[in-house]
Design brief:
- The chain is mainly beta.
- It is built from three helices and 22 strands.
- It has one domain: Glycosyl hydrolase domain, family 43 (Tachylectin-2, Chain A, 5 Propeller).
- It has a five-stranded mixed β-sheet.
- The radius of gyration is 18 Å and the shape is globular.
- The two termini are 22 Å apart.
- It binds beta-D-mannopyranose.
Length: 328
């Protein structure tokens, strides 16, 4: 039995795997859990992050407005399924040169030591990785951007590695980026990032075509006794545009740029109508997990067709077994 190294989460959202279902990740039966117009101004709510908070949960949500302006909003939930999202966007305290907003999207939440760090795709003369933190999801403080433009997916590790804060990211371009690999970076102080290492590339082969155009880190990596379990997105460019699917890999605990195993088959792909139809069709985009170390349960939060938010389930055993059985 593989073990999650982390806290127990007794009230984690959960449903058992449906009888006869063969994939390692199964959807919540009442998906989508967040509809596109859950706040009055929103056109769509997707690619959002959640974390245990108090005796319930808190989240940071990507809500694109009816002007199709992209911003991030805080929310709270007792059960991780029904969410109360603040209708006003997050306002960051900090240096006005940095907090000046162009656009914000695709947030991740990472609890480290005593606070919740938020990373997101931050408009700063092009997309880069914004970082902030909060203790209560009411007051938010913004730090310096991690990188120069252009970069869209920045995901921190939930503890220091070899004494340094660490992040996975995917350098990109100004547009819709027809390329992209995952890299590792670290910092002693959350301002100066370096030690950049390549983690993994797209697969330019028939063996795993779903991740042939670009890949990007998804939720905060899950620490297990076998390595960091990374859920990520992989993209294939088709005659009908990009298709986003979900994959998983196992990274070395001390040197996370070393890949121990990586599944050549996807773990979830757009099959359901709310994943195949929306503002951007055929997208599943994972941004967060909740985990329970006692049972090995994992709840995955993912954006569906850039329109609504879905929930899916797996266990550490199911996913690691699948990654190893389907490894290159
Ligand atoms: C990416 C990002 C994501 C989005 C995806 C599919 O480049 O913009 O937010 O979900 O494209 O449109």
């Amino acid at each position: 039995m593989a073990k999650i190294i982390g806290n127990s989460l007794k009230n984690i959202p959960w449903e058992e795997k449906p009888e006869g279902y063969t994939m390692p990740v199964w959807r919540y039966s009442a998906n989508p859990i967040i509809k596109r117009d859950a706040i009055p101004s929103s056109n769509s709510i997707f690619n959002s992050a959640v974390a245990p908070f108090g005796d319930g949960y808190a989240g940071v949500f990507r809500c694109d407005s009816k002007c199709v302006s992209m911003d991030i909003f805080a929310g709270f939930s007792k059960d991780g399924i029904h969410w109360d999202i603040n209708p006003d966007p997050i306002v960051f305290e900090g240096d006005p040169d940095v907090t000046k907003r162009e656009y914000r999207y695709d947030p991740r939440i990472c609890f480290i030591e005593d606070r919740y760090y938020i990373t997101w795709c931050n408009g700063y003369h092009g997309p880069t990785i914004g970082i902030g933190y909060t203790f209560d999801f009411k007051t938010f403080y913004q730090l310096e951007n991690a990188f120069l433009p252009y970069n869209r997916n920045g995901v921190m590790f939930p503890r220091k590695i070899n004494g340094k804060y660490a992040m996975l990211s995917r350098p990109s371009d100004t547009g819709h980026t027809p390329f992209g690999d995952i890299f590792y970076s670290q910092t002693p102080d959350l301002e100066y990032w370096g030690h950049h290492r390549h983690v993994m590339s797209v697969v330019k082969e028939d063996a795993s075509a779903w991740q042939g155009t670009k890949i990007g880190p998804g939720p905060v990596p899950i620490e297990t006794d076998e390595g960091w379990l990374l859920i990520y997105h992989g993209v294939l460019n088709t005659c009908n545009g990009f298709v986003y699917r979900m994959g998983a890999a196992l990274l070395d605990l001390d040197e996370p740029w070393k890949v121990i195993a990586r599944s050549k088959a996807y773990i979830l792909a757009p099959y359901e109508i709310y994943e195949c139809v929306g503002d951007v069709p055929n997208v599943v985009f994972p941004c967060a997990t909740l985990t329970d170390a006692d049972t090995g349960r994992i709840a995955i939060y993912y954006g569906c067709a850039d329109t609504v938010t879905g929930l899916a389930f797996t266990t550490v055993d199911e996913l690691l077994k699948y990654v190893k059985e389907n490894a290159f």
